[in-house]
Design a protein that fits this description.
By secondary structure, the chain is mostly helical. The protein has one domain (about 10-440): Amino acid/polyamine transporter I, CATH 1.20.1740. Helix content is about 80%, strand content about 0%. It has 18 helices and no strands. The protein has helices at about 10-20, 25-35, 40-70, 70-80, 85-120, 130, 135-145, 145-165, 170-195, 200-210, 220-230, 240-245, 250-280, 290-300, 305-340, 345-365, 365-405, 415-440. α2 packs across α13, α7 (about 135-145) packs across α14 (about 290-300) and α8 (about 145-165) crosses α15. It is globular and about 65 Å long. The model has no long low-confidence stretch (mean pLDDT about 90).
């Protein structure tokens, strides 16, 4: 099939896909999911899920997208016209709207915290009395509880996202990532150093890396797998859509491997920042969606140069979130452009407005946001990934997918392993995990 959408340059795809993958999922969602799911056990299952399930699905999605040159609905339809497979695409489009709605609330929070950091509001957060009185947590609660402010920040973030997406994928997205990503990683290393050198940091490290098997429950497994999909932007067609802009010269297996390594590395780093800090500073009441916002102000206050690095971090985080929201909005927008023949601008604005409306309850209630994140950011992605794997393995069939994958990657050695993973390992495990979480 001919694909003339090859809008990404060679390095552009890796950049854009890494920009999509790296975001709040790594720095905000991963640490709080670890905290809520028993620590080290969750981390271990997450890592296994990335390697044996998520990476094969990532390769599959990008390949499907490049072959068809379409949004998810169009992609399924192109290979099996008129079949019910297109509903997997519809589920992805719907999930995109739902994910965008809660994601943009947290992203708005990052913007808000940028201004808080800039205006010196983290000052004193690390003093003994501030820690004893949970000052950082309380500051976050009053911030998150300010509904008008939350809706305002949500709206700003959606508008930013709509603006970039309405301009098209090639120009904007590629450019940012090249400088900003390394800068973000630089600050993460500073935070890592600060956190790990705190007195008593090892208790946090132990919680984070020592699996406590008694914490293992079906829900832990499903949340870990869901997090692997979320973090790599899988299960709703983001990578199918981005794949549709990839040129035939691109080496898909190698590019996707690097994306997975990079994305997972950043998430793991985030945990090494958050948990030592929580444990060594004896912070109370840090759990749930507020975790990152409760912990980092304290760390920045305890760090030389925190007045500079604090605002810089939240600025970079906001931008990392933006390269992710762009990739989320792009799915329903590409659908409206391809299938409904809307122009890009109209599609971006209308879809953005709907996401904004759905985001309002998330902006007003943190517990609602947590539920939304679990359902749409975890469960629905697992279902989407399950169907992608079955579709590629048994409907389109792996030899056809491989024919596409070999273009730009004629030295790909993992073909057999990948085929086995996508046909058997991924579907069987995802299905078993989904069923056990419903039945047990
Ligand atoms: N992966 C991004 C993050 O970790 C979020 C994201 C972008 C996403 N596109 C997605 C999540 C598609 C699920 C599906 O922040």
């Amino acid at each position: 099939m001919q694909n003339n959408r090859g809008n990404f340059s060679k390095i552009g795809f890796i950049m854009a896909a890494a920009g999509s993958a790296v975001g709040l999922g790594n720095l905000w969602r991963f640490p709080y999911a670890v905290g809520e799911n028993g620590g080290g056990v969750f981390v271990l299952i997450y890592l296994i899920s990335v390697v044996v399930i998520a990476l094969p699905v990532l390769m599959a999605e990008v390949t499907l997208g490049r072959f068809t040159g379409k949004n998810p609905v169009g992609a399924f339809n192109a290979i099996k016209p008129g079949s019910p497979w297109k509903f997997v695409g519809y589920l992805g489009v719907a999930s995109g709207l739902m994910i965008l709605s809660f994601y943009a609330v947290i992203a708005g929070g990052a913007v808000g915290y940028f201004f808080k950091a800039l205006t010196g509001q983290f000052k004193g957060m690390a003093s003994e009395s501030a820690i004893a009185s949970n000052a950082a947590t309380e500051a976050y609660q009053s911030f998150a509880g300010n509904g008008v402010l939350q809706i305002f920040l949500l709206a700003i973030f959606i508008i930013l996202t709509v603006y970039v997406v309405s301009k098209g994928v090639s120009g904007g997205i590629e450019k940012y990532s090249k400088i900003l990503m390394p800068a973000l990683i630089g600050i993460l290393f500073l935070l890592l150093f600060r956190s790990l050198t705190l007195e008593g940091a090892s208790k946090g490290v132990a919680f984070y890396i020592k699996p406590d098997w008694s914490a293992l429950k079906p829900s832990v497994i499903i949340n870990a797998m869901g997090q692997a999909f979320f973090s790599l932007s899988l299960g709703m067609g983001t990578m199918i859509t981005y794949g549709s802009y990839v040129s035939k010269k691109e080496n898909i297996p190698s590019a996707t491997k690097w994306i997975a390594v990079f994305d997972t590395g950043i998430a793991i780093m985030a945990g090494f920042i958050i948990f030592p800090a929580i444990f060594s500073l004896g912070m109370q009441d840090v759990s749930g969606p507020g975790t990152m916002f409760n912990v980092l102000p304290v760390l920045f206050d305890k760090m030389p140069g925190g007045m500079v690095f604090g605002p810089l971090f939240f600025l970079l985080l906001s931008i990392a979130a933006l390269t992710s929201t762009i990739s989320i909005l792009e799915v329903p927008v590409a659908f409206c452009i391809d299938e409904k023949k809307w122009d890009r601008k109209k599609a971006s604005i209308i879809v953005g407005a709907i996401a904004l409306a759905i985001g309002v309850p998330c902006a007003l209630s943190e517990s609602f946001l947590g539920v939304w994140s679990t359902i749409w950011g975890g469960l629905s992605l697992s279902i989407g990934a399950l169907f992608v794997a079955i579709f590629i393995g048994f409907s389109w069939k792996t030899p056809n997918a491989l024919k596409e994958m070999y273009q730009g990657a004629d030295n790909f050695k993992g073909a057999k392993v990948w085929s086995f993973a996508i046909k058997y390992i991924a579907p069987v495990f995802i299905l078993a995990i989904l069923l056990s979480s419903f039945l047990l």
